[in-house]
Write a structure and sequence with these properties.
Blueprint: E1 3-8, H1 16-31, E2 35-40, H2 46-57, H3 63-87, E3 92-95, H4 97-100, E4 102-104, E5 113-116, H5 119-126, E6 130-134, E7 137-139, E8 145-147, H6 153-164, E9 168-173, E10 194-196, H7 197-205, H8 213-222, E11 226-230, E12 238-241, H9 245-248, E13 254-258, E14 261-270, H10 275-285, E15 290-295, E16 302-310, H11 314-328, E17 332-336, E18 339-345, H12 355-365, E19 372-376, E20 379-385, H13 389-399
Parallel strand pairs: 1-2, 1-9, 2-6, 3-6, 9-11, 10-12
Antiparallel strand pairs: 4-5, 7-8, 11-12, 13-18, 14-16, 14-17, 15-16, 18-20, 19-20
Bound molecules: aspartic acid and magnesium ion.
């Protein structure tokens, strides 16, 4: 019998009515004779609300306890969905991550999955039941509850699909699929019918919110097809799969942006070996991820180093950098919160030249200043002033003619 894993995001189950609609959808597919494993996220903004509550009580809440708290969101969702399915006469049973054996490492609030038990789920599927599993959570060796990092339910779904050898892993979202740009910003953004894992991965890490980046990585490694589709209508959605030669024909698949970054500049540090190594190892030790880095050409034995990091890490990053800058006798440390990163992504870039020039041209026509540039094989990113993001994304989208043809 065909087996599908279906993942429903928080907005798909945000009210009793929505929960019932989702149950209706699952039940009608089940009736057609398909085995279904459902993964759900916490309803609506519940995870954010729980985090806020913890921070109202303490400045830096304990990570272990945060996991115990956050896991409750998904636990509510699975029980409610199971109740909804049963009320429709569809046999179902809910399980938490620990109950089905989603085993993780011990890294609280951003744990990695190390093993997924399939036995229990298989035996319940054989009884004809729909199995509902809480996303985003697992259990470590010490039997402690862990969570997988924000958006981690996508990862739960892919890991289950791999362990159960599911035919496909479907992601029901409040959007119609993956677009050439965020339709909220770009009016004629076009829905993509297929996209490669690598492009999706770059899009996710460049700021597109559609799928969790680690889930795409996992799916790529295990060859799991991901189908992103809308919860609230029957349109086709987008398939994320291995690259085909046809995909290479399109130069650019999409334009993304990330407004959650900030920039730190260290002015006039000594221009000698070991400086960058020292600065960035201190940041690494403080568990701060750095994204783009530029170092200017030195003058009079000094040079400037700028880098971007997640804005939520800015305070912590500044403390580390200021301390190191003092040791190095750097002139000053500057912070800029008003930046954003805009990226173009496409596997076709590998075989087409002039992509960067075209992107920069689009920005220059709009008189948007580029502060930093970085490239990978299939991505070009620039840092611009945050207030210019919408303009930049639209200009680039238009320059590459990515939009729907409107008449
Ligand atoms: N509820 C968690 C979050 O909001 C996990 C998820 O939605 O995938 O991050
Ligand atoms: Mg959520």
């Amino acid at each position: 019998m065909k087996l599908i894993v279906q993942k429903f995001g928080g907005s798909s189950v945000a009210s009793a009515q929505k929960m019932l609609n989702v149950a209706q959808r699952i039940s009608s597919i089940r009736k057609r004779g398909t085995n279904i494993v459902v993964v759900v996220s916490a309803p609506g903004n519940m995870t954010d609300e729980l985090i806020t509550k913890a921070y109202e009580i303490a400045d830096s809440p304990d990570d272990r306890e945060l996991d115990v708290l956050l896991a409750t969101g998904e636990q509510q969702a699975i029980a409610l969905l199971s109740i909804a399915l049963k009320s429709l006469g569809c046999e179902a049973i809910s399980f938490t991550g620990p109950q089905v054996g989603i085993v993780t490492n011990g890294n609280h609030t951003k744990a990695r999955i190390v093993r997924v038990g399939a036995k229990k789920i298989k035996s319940v599927l054989n009884q004809g039941k729909v199995v509902i599993v809480a996303g985003f959570q697992g259990v470590n060796k010490k039997q402690e509850i862990t969570t997988l990092g924000r958006g981690g339910s996508d990862l739960t779904a892919v890991a289950l699909a791999a362990a159960l050898k599911a035919d496909i892993c479907e992601f029901y979202k409040d959007v119609d699929g993956v677009f050439t740009a965020n339709p909220a910003i770009v009016k004629n953004a076009k829905k993509l019918s297929v996209i490669s894992y690598d492009e999706m991965l770059e899009m996710a890490s460049a700021g597109a919110q559609v799928l969790n980046a680690r889930s795409v990585e996992f799916a790529k490694n295990y060859g799991i097809r991901m189908h992103v589709r809308p919860t609230f209508n029957n349109s086709e959605g987008t398939i994320v799969m291995a690259e085909t030669t046809a995909m290479e024909k399109t130069v650019i698949s999409g334009v993304t942006y990330n407004k959650d970054e900030a920039k730190i500049t260290v002015r006039a540090v000594p221009d000698r070996p070991g400086i960058a190594a020292l600065l960035f190892s201190k940041l690494g030790q403080a568990d701060i991820n750095v994204d783009m880095i530029i170092q200017n050409i030195g003058a009079e034995g000094k040079s400037d180093i700028s880098f971007t990091l997640e804005r939520e890490n800015l305070k912590k990053g500044l403390l580390v950098v200021k301390k190191t800058a003092r040791q190095l006798k750097a002139k000053e440390v500057l912070a800029d919160e008003n930046i954003a990163k805009v990226s173009v992504i496409g596997v076709g870039m590998r075989s087409h030249s002039g992509v960067a020039a075209k992107m920069f041209m689009a920005l220059s026509k709009m008189k948007i200043n580029i502060q930093m540039i970085s490239t990978s094989e299939i991505k070009i990113s620039v840092v611009v002033d945050r207030k210019d993001v919408d303009k930049a994304v639209n200009a680039i989208h238009q320059e590459f003619k990515l939009g729907r043809v409107t008449t």
